[in-house]
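Chapter summary example.
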Amino acid sequence: MQNLPHPRNIDDIDGTASYDARDLIVNGLKAEIVLDGQTYTLRITRAGKLILTK
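The structure predicted for these 54 residues follows.
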């Protein structure tokens, strides 16, 4: 498994981790996220929006 980025901060109240999307998308194009054997693709558009697709 690759080295994963560390969260920027973690909310003390509910434990929510905060990541910069560019830390997840290290090559500038896309990142694959796996959940329960399903692979999702996270992309940053030219307009700076995030798209998550299955």
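To summarize the output: The two ends are 21 Å apart (CA to CA).
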